[in-house]
């Protein structure tokens, strides 16, 4: 990533954004929102292009009721009504959808926040994870090297963060990405290195049965060390906070404070060296957090580096390991940016899909290598089973080009590549989209059709607007009459919906003729509901029918593309944005998604209407028609219900 120092822009100005778009290649879907949220402040930035941070703002958390309010306030200040993608680092463990902040009474659901802010993507990560991911993206002017040593490429990097506590992490290189190490290393037992530190430890033992590194190498630890040294020297300890101790030490106005800071730096050097030898961190040790970066040149001349190298037989080993202080003003932005970019490329910090990786790498491949990538994406199972000579023939390239393609993706050769490809193709439900091509074998056709459908359903599950589902269910559950409108390929979905909802004893009818739709809509009134199913949401006749229904006082539920004219007209719209090549193929997957949404709504209405007898209500929809015939109906009346 091409990084540069972050700079602030006037809150109500968009001039910086204009400059960024003019001077760099912007993201095609607009700026990305980045945030670093702590207990006291929330820091925000807009990433307008890779590594370009603009409109930096720091807002006090006390001024806002929750995470949504503070984010909305920032977007209003920069005059940006909406962003598509956002990443937030938060000073809290992240173990699922529900986040409860430790040092602030904010509790929120990540998915609910995403929906309320109308975001396509929202990632929430631990702030120390973000800081670790930032390390590789820091430029030389965003870090200060302390002592000697040269980092080795593709080696483990260690991270320490003394602040309110002592954060410990690492950045570890793997085959095709870097991963962060989750650690509670700050809670390892503290070990004194000299008589002074032993005096401090004895003082602590009188209060705590276990003394960890975090107990002393932190803000509260500075206060504890200061009181211990005051007792040792027989002088009264003033009620000083860590900030006061550090300021007095830097000013040289209190000898005990000066000694406290030296003691802190020496203990940090010991912990840093322990981390380096434990991890084999030949890529270096980085120091972040809220304390050390404020010490400036004083830290360079502290006992830190001497203590770091004081490891007896391993002194020479540690002399070659560089140590850095992170001086970037907002380092978490770099890490959040990297994690968000990785996610949007289809390579999350978990098990990313190899096929997604191939798609994202296409622009960096040569034209010949791109032909190999197109073959892999179109026929992955064929590539998996064919020898290199056949792969080269089908891609119309040389055999060395196939090898270069594999190595461009970080693999040693074709065998290594096939091994990774095979592991991706044998999972339970591969989340990818692979188009059917001419010449595909029967197994390939069946696998691709099922994979396309399964992938689309899983994607819909992750992005569907739950609030819209709830509102549509409420409207349908109280409806006096429901009419289903659709044309073309979606007409069968309307018929299926009419069949399902008629079982709730709600008068229902399905129309696929636009003239009938308009005429019937004009006869509706308050309490009636029209459900419109349309892939594009643009047919003019459907829109006229919707206008007529709304004018008559009916409500409209749309199952359609989220930004279509139909979506904007409807009382509530359930967005389906799956794209298919309707010019070449029949739109199959969209129809399946529409049927799935109808099923979700039907089950929701069944539960709502059958609150007193849910099993009975569900039986209305789950029984097949041959199990429950239309009682007391003659064939003519039964046909009338289906045909309208």
UniProtKB/TrEMBL annotation:
Protein name: Glucokinase
Catalytic activity, reaction form: D-glucose + ATP = D-glucose 6-phosphate + ADP + H(+)
GO BP: glycolytic process
Protein family per UniProt: In the N-terminal section; belongs to the bacterial glucokinase family.
Pfam families on file: Glucokinase (PF02685), HTH_6 (PF01418), SIS (PF01380)
Domain (SIS) ranges: 472-611
Record-linked InterPro entries: ATPase_NBD, Bacterial_glucokinase, Glucokinase, Homeodomain-like_sf, HTH_RpiR, RpiR-like_SIS, SIS_dom, SIS_dom_sf
Enzyme Commission number(s) from the entry: 2.7.1.2
Localization per Swiss-Prot or TrEMBL: Cytoplasm
Gene (UniProt): glk
Biased composition (Basic and acidic residues): 622-636
Example GO molecular function: D-glucose binding
Main localization of the protein described in the UniProt heading: cytoplasm
Domain HTH rpiR-type: 352-428
The entry's keywords: ATP-binding, Cytoplasm, DNA-binding, Glycolysis, Kinase, Multifunctional enzyme, Nucleotide-binding, Transcription, Transcription regulation, Transferase
């Amino acid at each position: 990533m091409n990084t540069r120092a972050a700079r602030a822009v006037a809150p109500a100005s968009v001039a910086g954004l204009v400059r960024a778009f003019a001077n760099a290649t912007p993201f095609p879907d607009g700026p990305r929102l980045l945030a670093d949220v702590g207990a006291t402040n929330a820091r925000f930035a807009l990433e307008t292009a890779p590594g370009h941070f603009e409109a930096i703002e720091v807002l006090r958390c006390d001024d806002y009721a929750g995470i949504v309010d503070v984010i909305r306030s920032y977007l209003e200040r920069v005059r940006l009504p909406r962003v598509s993608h956002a990443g937030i680092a938060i000073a809290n463990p992240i173990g699922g959808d529900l986040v409860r902040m430790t040092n602030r009474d904010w509790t929120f659901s990540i998915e609910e926040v995403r929906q309320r802010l109308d975001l396509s993507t929202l990632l929430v990560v631990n702030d120390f994870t973000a800081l670790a991911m930032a390390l590789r993206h820091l430029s030389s002017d965003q870090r200060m090297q302390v002592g000697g040593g040269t980092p080795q490429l593709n080696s483990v990097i260690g991270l320490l963060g003394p602040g309110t506590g002592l954060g410990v992490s690492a950045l570890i290189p793997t085959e095709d990405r870097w991963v962060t190490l989750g650690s509670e290393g700050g809670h390892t037992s503290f070990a004194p290195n000299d008589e002074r530190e032993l005096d401090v430890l004895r003082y602590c033992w009188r209060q705590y049965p276990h003394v960890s590194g975090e107990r002393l190498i932190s803000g509260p630890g500075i206060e504890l060390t200061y009181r211990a040294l005051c007792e040792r020297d027989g002088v009264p300890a003033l009620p000083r906070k860590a900030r006061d101790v550090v300021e007095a030490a830097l000013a040289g106005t209190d000898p005990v404070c000066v000694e406290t800071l030296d003691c802190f730096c020496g203990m940090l050097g010991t912990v840093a060296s322990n981390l380096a030898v434990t991890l084999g961190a030949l890529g270096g040790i980085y120091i972040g957090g809220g304390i050390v970066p404020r010490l400036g040149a004083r830290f360079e001349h502290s006992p830190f580096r001497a203590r770091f190298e004081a490891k007896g037989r391993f002194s020479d080993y540690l002399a070659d390991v560089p140590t850095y202080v992170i001086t970037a003003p907002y380092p978490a932005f770099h890490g959040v940016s990297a994690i968000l970019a990785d996610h949007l490329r289809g390579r999350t910090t978990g098990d990313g899909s190899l096929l997604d990786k191939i798609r994202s790498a296409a622009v960096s491949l040569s034209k010949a290598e791109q032909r190999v990538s197109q073959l892999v994406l179109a026929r992955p199972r064929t590539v998996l089973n064919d020898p290199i000579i056949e792969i080269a023939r089908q891609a119309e390239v040389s055999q060395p080009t196939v090898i270069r393609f594999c190595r461009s993706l970080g693999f040693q050769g074709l065998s290594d590549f096939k091994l990774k490809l095979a592991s991706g193709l044998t999972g339970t439900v591969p989340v990818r989209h692979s188009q059917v091509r001419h010449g595909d074998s029967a197994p390939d056709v069946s696998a691709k059709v099922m994979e396309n459908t399964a992938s689309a359903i899983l994607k819909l599950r992750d992005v569907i607007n739950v609030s819209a589902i709830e509102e549509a269910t409420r409207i349908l559950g109280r409806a006096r009459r429901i009419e289903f409108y659709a044309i073309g390929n979606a007409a069968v979905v309307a018929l299926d919906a009419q069949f399902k909802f008629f079982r709730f004893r709600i008068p229902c009818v399905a129309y696929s003729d636009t003239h009938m739709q308009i005429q019937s809509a004009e006869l509706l009134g308050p309490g009636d509901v029209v459900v419109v199913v349309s892939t594009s949401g643009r047919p003019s006749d459907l829109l006229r029918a919707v206008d007529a229904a709304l004018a008559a006082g009916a409500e409209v539920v749309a199952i359609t593309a989220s930004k279509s004219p139909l979506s904007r007209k409807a009382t509530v719209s359930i967005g389906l944005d799956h794209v298919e090549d309707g010019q070449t193929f029949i739109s199959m997957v969209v129809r399946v998604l529409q049927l799935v949404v109808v099923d979700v709504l039907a089950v929701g209405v069944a539960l709502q209407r059958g609150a007193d007898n849910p099993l009975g209500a569900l039986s209305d929809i789950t029984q097949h028609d041959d199990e429950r015939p239309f009682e007391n109906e003659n064939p003519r009346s039964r046909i009338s219900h289906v045909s309208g």
